[in-house]
Amino acid sequence: xxxxxxxxxxxxxxxxxxxxxxxxxxxxxxxxxxxxxxxxxxxxxxxxxxxxxxxxxxxxxxxxxxxxxxxxxxxxxxxxxxxxxxxxxxxxxxxxxxxxxxxxxxxxxxxxxxxxxxxxxxxxxxxxxxxxxxxxxxxxxxxxxxxxxxxxxxxxxxxxxxxxxxxxxxxx
Length: 172
Ligand SMILES: Nc1ncnc2c1ncn2[C@@H]1O[C@H](COP(=O)(O)OP(=O)(O)OP(=O)(O)O)[C@@H](O)[C@H]1O
Ligand SMILES: O=C(O)C1=C[C@@H](O)[C@@H](O)[C@H](O)C1
Ligand SMILES: [Mg+2]
Known about the structure:
By secondary structure, the protein is an alpha/beta fold. The chain contains 7 helices and 5 strands. The structure holds adenosine-5'-triphosphate, (3R,4S,5R)-3,4,5-trihydroxycyclohex-1-ENE-1-carboxylic acid and magnesium ion (MG).
């Protein structure tokens, strides 16, 4: 394996599960959103305000390319990273890709108290999440080695399931 890469929608638990997986595997953990914020010196809502979504996506593409050069890290991506072809190629080539799946209902519950996701500042966040998932679900699946359900399962259980199923994957 090169890296272990988590993809999926907002609220799927990429950051949460990624941190736990890295601890379990004793590997460094990198979170693309966090790395972009560190590099920019500004938070994601600020980047969206000043540079628009295209500005954020350019920063994200550069960061994904950089992070996929690592060898032996657990990488949590942003929910929209799969929207660009170049990112999907880099992620697929960068290691094992795990799609953390969550229903829209769970995503809504897990993101409702957090104001840090500019795309959810809409009148109807549930509809936004549903529309985004309709577009992105096939893209997550396109690059995934594993699809893992996170609904009604605490993070620890999701981690154990991932480790178990990774061990059963044939070499690529
Ligand atoms: N399996 C789970 N069960 C219940 N709550 C969870 C689960 N996974 C994550 N959460 C909670 O959901 C919230 C969002 O999780 P997290 O930030 O890890 O999502 P994310 O996929 O990284 O989202 P984003 O794409 O916006 O970065 C957090 O409060 C986290 O504690
Ligand atoms: O789903 C998305 O497009 C996003 C998810 C977050 O991880 C951040 O990358 C940002 O808020 C955009
Ligand atoms: Mg995250």
